[in-house]
Amino acid sequence: MTSTTDTAATQVQVLNDLPARVLTRPELRDLVAAIAADPAAWEPHVAYDDEHRHYVCLHRDANVDVWVLCWTPSNDTGWHDHDVSSGAVAVAHGEVIEHNLVIGSAALEIRVPAGQAFSFGTDHIHRMTGAAEGSVSIHAYSPPLWRMGQYAISTTGVLRRTSVSYADELRPIDEPFPDDQERLRDAQIQN
Ligand SMILES: [Fe+2]
């Protein structure tokens, strides 16, 4: 099982017709919806792994990157943002869940079944998980992903951001951040 950032060899017409500029959110949404509706574009790249989410880069140029992501219910990106990129997701097969962080209450969960798509701007923070075995989604980002923010909540509820590369697999941060009581104690010592 491999996940790769090497661009897969593909002949998808909609990828040959991209404007030579940063795409708008509606354009990103139309792009991922068109690819999701074309199984020949993504089926050759489908594979599943409960431990390490399987994904393949379909296209990458100076303005946009496009990915095929494969999901089992065990797969979880953890909380993250996309830095300076806007993005769109279309579910091609199965179902995924988009989680939106709500301060002070449970996260908002939006189930996205096959045939549906959504887009988001640079201000968006979310987490994605698989909802059904054998799910596939198409993602596009513009400008193309380079850095992303991966979030974790410390033992005392403080939200922390870590900058990661687009080449890193997004997953919940396993290593707990230093306990905030320890941080406060350190601050008092320095004072
Ligand atoms: Fe994301």
Radius of gyration: 18 Å
How helix-rich are the residues, as a percent range? Answer: 10-25%
Largest sheet: 6 strands, mixed
Provide the β-strand percentage band.
Answer: 35-45%
Low-confidence stretches: none
Quick overview of this protein structure:
The protein is of the alpha+beta class and about 190 residues long. It is built from 4 helices and 12 strands; from the N terminus they run βαααβββββββββββα.
Q: Which terms summarize this structure?
A:
binds fe (ii) ion; 4 helices; 191 residues; 6-stranded antiparallel sheet; single chain; globular; alpha+beta; 6-stranded mixed sheet; 38% strand
Report on this model:
With 191 residues, the chain is an alpha+beta fold. It has helices at 13-16, 25-36, 39-42, 180-190, and strands spanning 4-7, 54-60, 65-71, 79-81, 86-93, 95-100, 108-113, 117-120, 125-130, 135-142, 147-153, 159-165. The strands form 2 sheets. It has a 6-stranded mixed β-sheet with strand order 1-2-3-10-5-8, with helices on one face. It has a 6-stranded antiparallel β-sheet with strand order 7-6-9-4-11-12, with no helix packed on it. Strand 2 (54-60) and strand 3 (65-71) form a beta hairpin. The chain starts with a strand and ends with a helix. Fe (ii) ion binds next to strand 9. Keywords: Dioxygenase, Iron, Metal-binding, Oxidoreductase. This is Cysteine dioxygenase. Pfam families: CDO_I (PF05995). Belongs to the cysteine dioxygenase family. Residues 171-191 are annotated as: Disordered.
